[in-house]
Design goal:
It comes from Sphingomonas plantiphila. Its EC number is 1.4.4.2. This is glycine dehydrogenase (aminomethyl-transferring). InterPro entries: Aminotrans_V_dom, GDC-P_C, GDC_P, PyrdxlP-dep_Trfase, PyrdxlP-dep_Trfase_major, PyrdxlP-dep_Trfase_small. This protein has 14 helices and 12 strands. By secondary structure, the chain is an alpha/beta fold. A 7-stranded mixed sheet has the order 1-7-6-5-4-2-3, with helices on both faces. α9 links the parallel β4 and β5. The longest helix has 37 residues. The radius of gyration is 28 Å and the shape is globular. The N terminus is likely disordered. Bound molecules: pyridoxal-5'-phosphate. The site of pyridoxal-5'-phosphate has 14 residues, from α6.
Length: 542
């Protein structure tokens, strides 16, 4: 039996091989270890001292109908109709300082964009400007309720309307549906608009073409909406194979879903040619715009023939994401798809703004495919994104795209000598640089490099995506990182990659300095333990 320290942590769980570095407590200097709350709090104590409850009184007279049922059920002396708890509640009892420390220690083990570099490819983990946060916290935005009378929230509606205006302007599109709550939700919105447009035309087209390099959400969305997904191969230089795509077009094809810039970090130069061909064949073009950061202010997808595209406000427009906040995925729509946009939307009516909640027979929005969310979308994110757009201005947004691309190319050129960069010869990349695991020592993989980077103090890049590159490592630095940060990252990445090429055995068991060592990720995914059980119970279950 090992010793368990005050926080339930067993030192050997954190021991470094060879014994050096193990501490009695398992703590590492002032970075404290943390056990589960159930392991530090006792189930038979309570952290607060409430008076014992008096027995509940009957809530209603016998025989009287209430929301809880009629008379006989209430005869047990309270209004819980026999559902009252008789066993212990089984929650850990902790005092206030213990509870505060537990969550504060956990929060220190969390990694976020406010702590350091977060080069997760395809995720655009840029800095979230504090000005955005200040605006979103203004009481006029933060303290309103979506069911308030429209006359009392004209300012909030104006934020939605102004943001809609700038999104439509930046993309060169006709309209925008603001309510989708994430990129994938936006994809669903766009695909449902395409479906509604086809239905209005009385056509039954069942196939959606998706390039191999697509984000996993694209085929998932098309399948979810009832379409059959067919893959379109990529060319050796990492772009959509235009000939293969046009050859597949026909009366059964509803449309294509293309990511631009694509997930190999390359601009799809032939998108206009593709759009023209798709339109000529009677289909629609969905563009996955999650990577808009690389082209914002420089390219208007509407000019490339796109019919629908989601914009991840939580990527390009700097609203927090991941653990930091909800996403928001407005969808811009072409003239052809605009009439089918989901409800609700904001509309100018004279000098006031109205919220159109229901279909009207109106020629502009009589054909809405319905509603996707209860209310109007992510109001806090709208406020942050509009703040970001207005504080950058047209020139600032253009510079965002230019600096994001510059930073990615800096990383690409700095690392192409040490790692295989499959598309480096295709020319400059866009916002992200991609590497493969070719050339690593026998038995060493992309995962080892990712784990080694954790020891170096960097959140790893995206790994094993996109699937078209073997052992892919996708690095997206974004424009908000300084040259000094990138240089430090590049140095660490080089050092770790060299170790993987030289076959340094210690790398196989990295991370060595993280709160947890290398986890069995397969086991964690296949047999996740999501509920804490008392040790005796857990043993009995095994
Ligand atoms: C992030 C991303 C998505 C999905 O966006 P969510 O907001 O996570 O649903 C879709 N496609 C691409 C290319 C992305 O990078």
């Amino acid at each position: 039996m090992s010793t368990i320290n005050q926080s339930g942590w067993r030192p050997e769980m954190n021991a470094v091989e060879g014994g050096a570095g193990a501490t009695f407590t398992g703590n590492r200097a002032l970075m404290l270890e943390e056990a589960l709350i159930f392991e530090i709090g006792a189930l038979d104590t309570t952290g607060v001292d409430f008076e014992p409850c008096a027995p509940a009184k009957a809530g209603a007279q016998s025989g009287e109908d209430t929301a809880f049922g009629s008379g006989p059920l209430l005869s047990q002396g309270n209004r819980l109709a026999g559902l009252e708890r008789h066993r212990d509640i089984g929650l850990p009892g902790l005092s206030e300082p213990e509870a505060v420390r537990h969550y504060t220690r956990l929060s220190r083990q969390n990694y976020g964009i406010d702590l350091g570099f977060f080069p997760l490819g395809s995720c655009t983990m840029k800095h979230n400007p504090r000005l955005n946060e200040r605006m979103a916290r203004l009481p006029g935005f933060a303290d309103i309720h979506p069911l308030q009378p429209v006359d009392t929230v004209q300012g909030a509606l104006e934020v939605i309307d102004q943001l809609a205006h700038w999104l439509v302007t930046l993309t060169g599109m006709k309209a925008v549906a603001m309510s989708p709550k994430a990129g994938a939700h936006g994809e669903l919105c766009g695909i449902l608009a395409i479906k509604a447009a086809l239905e209005a035309r009385g056509e039954d087209r069942r196939v959606v073409l998706v390039p191999e390099s697509a984000h996993g959400t694209n085929p998932a969305t098309a399948a979810f909406a009832g379409f059959t997904v067919e893959d379109i191969p990529a060319t050796p230089d990492g772009r959509v194979d235009v000939d293969a795509l046009t050859a597949r077009l026909g009366p059964d094809v509803a449309g294509v879903m293309i990511t631009n810039p694509n997930t190999c970090g390359l601009f799809e130069r032939d998108l206009k040619t593709i759009s023209d061909a798709v339109h000529a064949a009677g289909g629609y073009v969905y563009c996955d715009g999650a990577n808009f950061n690389a082209i914002v202010g420089k390219v208007r997808p509407g000019d490339l023939g796109v019919d629908a595209m989601h914009i991840n406000l939580h990527k390009t427009f700097s609203t927090p994401h991941g653990g930091g906040g909800p996403g928001s995925g407005p969808v811009v729509l072409s003239e052809a798809l605009a009439p089918f946009a989901p409800l609700p939307f904001v509309e100018k009516q004279g000098d006031r703004l109205a919220l159109i909640e229901e279909e009207t027979a109106d020629e502009h929005h009589g054909e809405s495919f319905g509603r996707m969310v209860s209310f109007h979308g992510q109001m806090g994110m709208f406020t942050r994104a509009l703040t970001y757009i207005l504080s950058h201005g047209a020139d600032g947004l253009k510079q965002v795209a230019e600096d994001a691309v510059l930073n990615a190319n800096y990383v690409l050129r700095a690392l192409e000598g040490v790692l295989d960069a499959p598309f480096a010869k295709s020319g400059p990349c866009m916002h992200e640089a991609i590497f493969s695991d070719r050339g690593l020592a026998e038995g060493f993989s992309t995962l080892d490099i990712a784990k080694g980077l954790i020891d170096e103090g960097f959140h790893p890049m995206t790994v094993y995506f996109p699937l078209v590159v073997h052992g892919a490592m996708l690095v997206e630095p974004t424009e908000t990182e300084s040259k000094a940060t990138l240089d430090q990252f590049i140095g660490a990445f080089r050092a770790v990659a060299e170790r993987a090429k030289a076959g340094d055995a210690a790398l196989k068991s990295a991370p060595h300095f993280a709160p947890r060592r290398r986890l069995d990720e397969t086991q964690a995914a296949r047999k996740p333990v999501l509920v804490w059980k008392e040790p005796a119970q857990a043993q009995a279950a095994e």
